[in-house]
Every structure is written in C-alpha cells, then in structure tokens.
Amino acid sequence: MFQLKWLWHNLRGDRARYIFALILSVVGCSLTIINPYIGQRIVDTFITGDDAVHNLTSQRSLLIGLCLGMIGFSLLRTGMAYFTTLLYERASQNMLYRVRIFLYNKIQGQDMHYYDHNRTGDLMTKMTGDLDMVRHTMAWIIKTIVESLTVFIAAVVYFFYIDAELTWWLLILSPPIFIVAFIFARRVRPMYGDLREKLSQLNTITQENIAGNRVVKAFAREEFEVQKFTEKNVNYSTANKAAAMVWLDYFPYLETFAQAFNVILMIVGGMLVMDGRITFGEFSAFSALIWGLSNPMRNIGIIINDIQRFFASLTKIVDVYYAEPRIVNGHNVEVKRRYKGTIQFENVSFKYDNATVLENINFTVKPGETIAIMGATGSGKTTLINLIPRFYDVTKGRVLVDGKDVRELELDELRGNIGVATQDVLLFSDTIDGNIAYGDPDMPEDDVVEFAKLAAADDFIRKMPESYNTIVGERGVGLSGGQKQRIALARAMAVQPPILILDDTTSAVDNETEEHIQKSLRELDFDCTKIIIAQRVSTTAEADRILILDNGRVIEEGTHSELVAKRGYYYEVFKLQNEGIGRQATTHG
Ligand SMILES: Nc1ncnc2c1ncn2[C@@H]1O[C@H](COP(=O)(O)OP(=O)(O)OP(=O)(O)O)[C@@H](O)[C@H]1O
User: Fold this and answer.
1) Domain ABC transporter spans what residues (predicted)?
2) Antiparallel, parallel or unpaired: β 545-550 and 370-375
3) What is the gyration radius of the CA atoms in the chain, in angstroms?
4) Domains of the chain
5) Contacts for 522-527 with beta carbons within 8 Å, 24 or more apart?
C-alpha cells in the first residue's frame, strides 16, 4: 500500500528504533495473558479447589511466589509500555522533523506558478495539522492496531488452550463486528477528505484576515469578516459533527457486540463451569482477559476515524512532497560569474494559464543602458520584467541575458546578477540593517549606510529609535509606503548587480526624493543595466529608451524626445503630468 510505503521511506534513520518499538509492543502485549494465568492458578489452587484450605498452609510459598509474580509482571509491563511509548515518540518526532524540513525546502523551491495556485492557509495546514496527523499515525494509530491485535490473538490462543468451545462461542461475534466496521469505514472515508478541505478554508480565511487586518479596519468591515469566518467555521464544525454522527450510527452496534462478549461468557462459561468442563479459575482467566477481545472492538471506530483522517492528510502532504516546479533551481553554481548586463527579448509571448498577457515583444538593452517601461495598468509591465529572472518562463520566443537564453543559465547565477525591487514591497521582521543586507548578510555596515543614502533612506532611518538596528514589524509595518520603497531600493542596489530592475519603486516618494534617487541611479559606481517601470515622466525622461506597453504589446519605443514628438500615448501622459505644474510640452534635447 502506497501510504505504508511512504511512511517506511520517510522513517529512514529511525527504522531500527521503530521496529524495536513494534517488537516490544508485541512482546509486552503478549505478556498480558500471564497475570490471568497466575490468577487462574491462585483461584484453582487456593480458593476453589478441593484442597484449597490445605494448600493455603502447605503451599504458602507458592502462593507468595504467584502473588509476587503478578506484581512483578505488572511492573514489567508498565516499564515496557513506558519504554515502548518513548521509542514510538522519538521515531515519530524525528520523522516529523525530517519531513517538515523536506516539505519546507520543496515549498521554497517552487516557482511562481505554484504560489499562484496554492493558498497560503492551505500550505500552512499541510505544514502543521497534516504533518502532525502523520506523526499521530506513527505514534498512536499503528501502535494501537499492533497492540490490539496482539492482545486479541494472545487472548484467543490462551482461550483455545483452556476451552475451544467457549472460545468459538465468543468468536461468533467477530465477523459481524468486522462487517459493521467495514461499512462504517466506507461511509466515513469521503467525509474526512471534505473535512480536511473545510479546515484548509478556515485556515486560509484566518490567515488572510490577520494579514489584511489594516484593510479590514480601514473599511470597518470587521463584522463582514466575522461573518465570513463564522461561515467557514460553521462549515467545518458541521462537517466534523456529520463525521461524528456517522460514528454514532454505528457505535451502538459495536458497543452492543462488545458487551455481548461478557454476556456470552457469563451464560456459556457459567454453564461450562456448572458442568465441570472448566474450573472456576479457568473461568476467571476468561473473565480477566475478555477485555482483550472486546476492547479492540470498542477502539475500532476511533482507529477507523483516525485512519481516514490520516489518508486525507497524507494526500495533501503528498501533493507538496512530489510537486515538481516547472522552473527548477538546481543550485549548481560553484563560481558565480558577473554578467555584462545585455538583455534581449526575441519574439516573446507569455500566457498565464490561458490568458495571453504579452505578445511578440522584441527589444534589446545594452550593458549600462537604462530602459523605462510605461503603460496602462494591467498592460503587462510586471509580467515582462518577471521573465528576466525567470520567475516565469516565456510561452513563445526567448529572453536572453548576455546572449544566452535564460533557460540555459544557472538560476542562482542569473538571479544573483539581478537586483529586483518589486512593486509590492515585502520587508522581513528584522532590523533595517538586516533587510538592506538581505542579499549579502556579510555586507559591512558602511556599505549598508552607503546604499541607504543612495536610496534617500539614510535620513529617516537615523531618526528611527534605534537607527539601523530598529526592527521593522511584519512586512514592514511601522514604515510609510515611501520609506518601505526606499529600503527595498537600497536592498536591491546593495548587491551591486549588473542588472537592476525597479518596478514602480518610487511611486510613493515625493518629487524631491525621487530626484535624489534618479541622481543616485545615474551615478552608481558599478556597471549596471537598469530596467525601470514608472508612471512618472520625470522618471522616464532620463532613460536611454522608453517602451510603451499596451495590452501586452509594445506600441511605442524611443527616447523621451522621440516619443514626445510622436504625439502618441507617451505624449498624452507627458502633457497630462505637466499641465498641473504649468510646464510646456516641449521636447528635450
Ligand atoms: N499571477 C498571475 N496569474 C494570472 N494572471 C495574472 C497574474 N499576474 C498578472 N496577471 C494578469 O496579467 C495582466 C498583466 O499584469 P501585470 O501585473 O503584468 O500588469 P502591469 O502592467 O504591471 O500592471 P500595474 O501597472 O497595475 O502593475 C493583467 O491582466 C493581470 O490580471
């Protein structure tokens, strides 16, 4: 069975420990018949036998020995159970630790396409609840099945040894119990898949709500969010109750069968004692061990429920475990070359799933050049720049860096040569210094300050309570939009990449600050090709070339003066942005 194979595979490193635990479980549970056997001897020899009274005095040492044996075996069993549980816990926790690292690396290694199609809440559920279900399976479900089966078999063997007929009478109950359990398992199985999906939806809503709490508050939509959450919570709770109710449908049958073991023992066993076929001691042994038959039947429901949960969780984990990214980062580079910074787009088209977003894009950027990209919202600007570091692969055509198709370059090397400041700025919960030096943790403090100055961030950083050591909150909470953008810009520049990509990085800063940043970008003391997405003409005017994108196509291309002279889209934007400040729509030289 695939699930067991998977568990076995991932138990690598703890297999011996786990097998040892299983052996101890079997040995420990087999010993459960010893105390009933001793009890049987005590009853027959010292309580009900013909010579009982005489034996009490003549065989006192035997009685003491049997009592001590009983105590000894009880202690031995407790010790073994303790040690066995320890082994199961160790093996399952170690496995959980290893699989969690593996899954984390898998998720980390996925491409953008994967993140586009997987919800954060669902991935978090896989990394927490689902993984814990696997651990629970190793540490509890398998253990319980093995121990219940061992006790059952040991009891049956011992019962046969005492009296076959009474044993058959008791075993009559087993087939109906297994049939009921089988029907229950089939009915409840799909419910756990559904339950798992509902849990994931609940986690997704919770995660989104916490991450988006500022938007919720800004729109005073708390009540709406509570309703949304309540709906998912009700769905999850209803699914949970439905699964529990199914169990309740079957529970009375299983419990009745379990109780019937005692009834049969009383009736048939009692008659056999009266007939003298079995001794009173043997009857008491049956009585003491009957739980070995009835308990597994009682546990069967819980075990089946947990197994179904495990199947549902494992299916989800396996999704991540075997997911292969379309864009694979082999992390194979030993020496990272520094590129010159030529970028070429050759007949590039791109689709997200089925929607075409870029069509037949052609342009070349020489080392050291600055290209500005402008265009209406949704025209494909971000998508276009995402193709250079291979966040996505082209659908048609080629993107070349230094004359080589990016698909043939080592990803670490390629990405190491590109500094990106994305449109949505994400800062980590770390110091400002740590955030700027993210691309190179060994960066000297002086360099961090230098790049912060270039990004016009030094002034405001120094005004913060602990200057560069100030910890910024989750995703940069505590900073203004423009401040976050400047830190992100410093972070991108700080790796001194030969290719720098800025996606609307100065949209939230004032004109004066933007001018400072423009100047810094012009005067960078390392060779660098720049691709800048911008909406302000003040940003694009200085570029060597400007591309205007519309609906995924390049509709205009040229220098600022060429495009103004052309009197097309760029000219309109230029006019619009200058009207407000009364400047004339003139061409620059
Ligand atoms: N991950 C994605 N999956 C599917 N479609 C996407 C994805 N990202 C963007 N799109 C779609 O691709 C088109 C281009 O988006 P893109 O972000 O490249 O535009 P943009 O020009 O950068 O816009 P803006 O100026 O608003 O940032 C849009 O129609 C958008 O809906």
Assistant:
1) 343-576
2) parallel
3) 36
4) 2-321 (1.20.1560.10), 336-417+498-589 (3.40.50.300), 425-496 (3.40.50.300)
5) 524/454, 524/493, 526/496, 526/498, 527/340, 527/341, 527/367, 527/368, 527/498
Residue where the block lists tokens 């043939």: 408
Q: Note the maximum CA span of the chain.
A: 126
Q: Which two tokens stand for residue 292?
A: 């070995």
Q: Whose CA is nearest to atom 30 of ligand 1?
A: 378
- Alpha-helical segments (H) within 322-392: 381-386
Q: Indicate whether 201 pLDDT > 50.
A: yes
Q: Which residue of 381, 385, 503, 533 sits with most ligand 1 atoms within 8 Å of its CB, as the best mutation to test the pocket?
A: 381
Give residue-wise pLDDT tens across range 125-176: 889 889 999 999 999 999 999 999 999 999 999 999 989 988 998 888 888 8
Closest CA to 147 of 27, 14, 306: 27
Tell me the best of 354, 358, 382, 388 to mutate to test the pocket of ligand 1, counting ligand atoms within 8 Å of each CB and taking the most.
382
Coil, strand or helix at 529 = strand
Evaluated on CA atoms 25, 27, 33, 39, the torsion sign reads negative
- Residue whose Cα lies nearest atom 10 of ligand 1: it is 352
> Of 509, 346, 357, 336, which is closest to residue 421 (Cα–Cα)?
509
Atom of ligand 1 nearest to the CA of 386: 18
Phi, psi of 405, rounded to the nearest 5 degrees = -55, 130
Q: Are 357 and 383 in contact (CB under 8 A)?
A: yes
> Strand, helix or coil at 136?
helix
* Ligand 1 neighbourhood includes 383 CB (under 6 angstroms): yes
The total number of residues shown for the chain amounts to 589
**What spacing in Å lies between the alpha carbon of 380 and ligand 1's midpoint?**
6
Long-range contacts (CB closer than 8 Å, 24 or more residues apart) made by 48-53: 48/279, 48/280, 48/281, 49/279, 49/281
The number of angstroms, rounded, from the C-alpha of 308 to the middle of its chain's C-alpha atoms is 20
Q: Is 48 helix (H, G, I), strand (E, B) or coil?
A: coil
Closest CA to ligand 1's atom 18: 380
Ligand 1 within 6 A of 419 CB?
no
> Is the confidence metric ipTM above 0.90 for this complex?
yes
Residue linked to tokens 């703890």: 14
